[in-house]
Amino acid sequence: MLLAIIAAILFTFVEARPPAADGPYRLIKDVPIGGDGGWDYLNVDPGARRLYISHASKVVVYDMTTDAIVGEIADTPGIHGAVPGPGGRVFTSNGRENKASIVDGKTFQTITKVD
Q: CATH says 36-115 is which class?
């Protein structure tokens, strides 16, 4: 009986919550990326209008002007994030190999890896 009363009280409070307010964000488009593995940080390069999407062992590069995937930065095992930097470079944090990659932001080719 006590359990039923507690459950009734909890459900009363759950139902009494106000509905969530509409926020400033809205879904514009779904873009399938595919591939296995997990996801981590997203990062935007506002100047180049690119979105860097960390996905398992690669970075998917999305052009926000054309709404298209324009490339991948490969060989980034356990990628946490990709950050655009000066000189057209992109820097990645590769967790599984405990290294950072320095990447050419135009060709998406790795220039070097740093321990």
A: mainly beta
